[in-house]
Each structure stands twice: as structure tokens, then as C-alpha cells.
Amino acid sequence: MFTDSCYYKKLNHAYRQLGNLQEQAGHMPEQFRSIFLSALDEFSNSLREVKFLLDELRYRNIELAASNAALEGERQRYLELFEFAPDGYLVTDRDGRIMEANNAAKELLKAEHQLIIGKPLSIFIAPEEKETFTRIFKKLQEGSVQKIADRRIYLQPWAGKPPFPASFTAGVVRDISGKPGSLRWRFSDISWRKKAEDEMQKADKLETIGLLAGGIAHDFNNLLANLLGHISLARFNLDNPEKLAQRLDLSEKVVFKAKDILRQLFQLSQKDVSDYRIFSIKNIIDNVLELSLKNPRVKSHCTFPRNLLHVKADEAQIGQVIQNIIINALQSMPEGGDLWISAKNITHEEIDRGFFPSSGERNYLCLTVSDTGCGIPKEVMAKIFDPFFTTKKEGTGLGLATSYFIIKKNGGHIAVDSKAGHGTTFHLYLPAREPRGNSA
């Protein structure tokens, strides 16, 4: 390979040869001298162009060497950042085989470099998470999704060590033609976060138990005082059968109200004995509207797509929730109004994960119930799912608390949007399946 100095030596040698030829031209016959000198001038011009190009090439080589040095420095810094980053970084090919892994990734997976490189990333995913991971990987592989951010999954370390919760972000690196190429992954151990969330859940449960105990004591104290009052007054009406019967009827109503509270409390406290089935939500809504929509000034509007999935849940329990929400909506419009009910299919990725936890379910049905009633004041919104909280004179305060519990127990979520004077909208997210006749 020629170096710059080698090229310049060759060029200087060419200049000396040109000088020798110019001297020899003086001894040539006149008729050849002018032709020969003209050719030497062309050759001299060519040498000057070559020198100019060599100078330019030399300058470019200096610039290239400086760029290469800077690039190598950047590469070294990238490698240092990659290797010593606190999170686990992996690079896989389009088939999911690991090509690169940094020190943190090796530590997370509890495996040496040679045990990780070339292995499918899927073998480091906990068995119960593999289906979810496969769906996410296919979307990245096909390029339908460019990036997946802050998702939770359980990683399975090497050699049978226990799985642990991790947060991950994944992105597609496209090749020159724009097609999906390698994939880059970042994993973080969030065991500490999971423990903190568990502790918060325990604290929430203790707070709920305290709230339940206080509510039970308050409600039963009022009921017992009411019952004792009716019994005491009944003693003064022993000689008046009509008034005595009225007091006994009122006492009976108090007992039935106490029984209703105990029934809802039992439902909140019992273990999961749900009877999960696959059913159409439309049938439940039709039945509830037929039984509950008595006010002729309230108009109902239902919208359901033809391809609406069926719900997988306890049909009786979900029916109770829908009935409770629709009755609340109707009661908020005593002077009349509009009740809007709609449903749509939705995937887990489309749901706001800020309130919806990681789940093995892929498809959900979103049921939306909106009214044009009085709405819920801002100061009340945070309490509507609290046990024994109610704004109704005859309410127990357990309707929405029970609904919240049922929806959570059936693997779904309930959310509400409202503003005083502008109506209320409830959103129910429930696990969904294809109707049995359409399933593959």
C-alpha cells in the first residue's frame, strides 16, 4: 500500500524526468522540437494536477484520521456507558437471539457472557409471561410498533433461579433500506418497586378495613337506635292495633335494611367464587333498561358495533354492576335527560397503563355509560368508591364500592369522568373473548 510520502517521491521523480526531457529537447531537430515541447507542456500540466490532487488527498486523509480518532473515542465511551450502565442492555437480531449484553444484563440474568450470547431472549422470560412477550416481540419484529416503553414483565434468570419483576423498554433499529433490523432492550429490576406497591396495598387494605369498621359501627348504631325507638313507641300503642302495626312495619324495614347491608358486606368479604362465563353484554343491558327505565322523559341511546366481543366474567356479578350504574344514572335525571350506552373492543396496549396493571389478557371490552344528569362535584369524586360513602338519603354507600370490588375481582377496571352540572360517564373495562361460535 502506497503512503503519502511514496506518492510524493514518485511525483518528484516524474518532475526530474520532465527536466531531463526538456534538456534533451534542445538537441532535437527544429521540426520535432516544437511538437515535443508541446507534449512536455501537457505532461507538466498533468503533473501539476496530480500534485494538487495529492495535496487534497493528503488533507482529506488528515481529516479522516482525525475523524476516525474521534469516532474511536466515541465508540470507547459508548462501550463504557453500555458496559457500566446501571440498567441491563441487550441487543437482539430480528429473530430474538441475543447479540450483545452489558454487565448489568448479565447480572440480572445471572449468567456469564458465553451463556447469554446467541441464546433466544425468550428463554429468560418467565413461563407465565411468554405469551405476552411473544405478542410484543412480533409487533417489534414486523415493524408495526417502533418502540415499547416502560412495560412490566417477569424475567427468568439462568439455572432455575426465581423469576423477578422487571420494567423494560424496547426499540427497533432499522437498516439502510428502512426495514426493521436489530432490536435494543433495556431491563430494570423493579423488585423494590413491587415491594413498595405491596406495602402500599397493605396500608390501603388496613385503611379500608378501618373505614369499613367505622361505617358499620355508624350505620348499625343508627339502625339499632331507630329500631329501639320503634319498639319503645310500639309499647304505647298496644291498645291501638293500627298504630302498632305501623310501628312493626317500620321496625321490619329497619331490619331488612340491616340485612341488605350485611348481604353487601358479605359479598365484599367473601373469597373469589365467581362463575366465569363468556356472554354478550348487550343482553344484560337490554334487560336492565327494560326493568329500570320507567321515566318517560329519559331517552336511552345504545350503540354497539357488529363485531363486539363477548365478556369473560361472572355474568350475575357484572349484571349487578351494570344495573347499579344505570340506576344511579337514571336517579341523577329526575326531570328527564339522555342516557348514552356504548361499547367497543380495545386491546391492552390501547388502555392507559397509568391506571391499568399489567395483565395476561389481550382483548378487552370497554362499556361506556353516560348521563346528562347533575354530575358529581369535584370534592366528592375521590370518595365515590369508598365503602359507606353516599350522598343519598336512603343509600347504604355500598353500591359503587361493591361494583368496584366486583370489576377488579373479574380482572377489569372501572373509571369515572364527571363534572357538577355536566353529567357523569362511567367506563368499564372487562376481559373479552370471541363469541363461542366464532372462536377458532
Chain-wise SSE layout:
Blueprint: H1 4-25, H2 30-84, E1 88-92, E2 98-101, H3 103-109, H4 113-116, H5 130-142, E3 147-155, E4 164-174, E5 180-189, H6 191-235, H7 241-269, E6 276-279, H8 281-292, E7 298-303, E8 310-314, H9 315-331, E9 337-347, E10 363-371, H10 378-381, H11 399-409, E11 413-418, E12 424-433
Parallel strand pairs: 7-9
Antiparallel strand pairs: 1-2, 1-5, 3-4, 4-5, 6-8, 8-12, 9-10, 10-12, 11-12
Please explain how this structure is put together.
- The protein is of the alpha+beta class.
- The protein has 4 domains: 4-82; 85-189, Beta-Lactamase (2-Layer Sandwich), CATH 3.30.450; 194-270, Helix Hairpins, CATH 1.10.287; 272-440, Heat Shock Protein 90 (2-Layer Sandwich).
- The protein has helices spanning 4-25, 30-84, 103-109, 113-116, 130-142, 191-235, 241-269, 281-292, 315-331, 378-381, 399-409; strands at residues 88-92, 98-101, 147-155, 164-174, 180-189, 276-279, 298-303, 310-314, 337-347, 363-371, 413-418, 424-433.
- Strands 6, 7, 8, 9, 10, 11 and 12 form a 7-stranded mixed beta sheet that branches. A 5-stranded antiparallel beta sheet has the order 2-1-5-4-3, sandwiched between helices.
- A hairpin with a 5-residue loop joins strand 11 and strand 12 (424-433).
- Helix 1 (4-25) runs antiparallel to helix 2 and helix 6 (191-235) packs antiparallel against helix 7 (241-269).
- The longest helix is centred in the N-terminal third of the chain and has 55 residues, at 30-84.
- It is elongated and about 160 Å long.
- The mean pLDDT is 80.
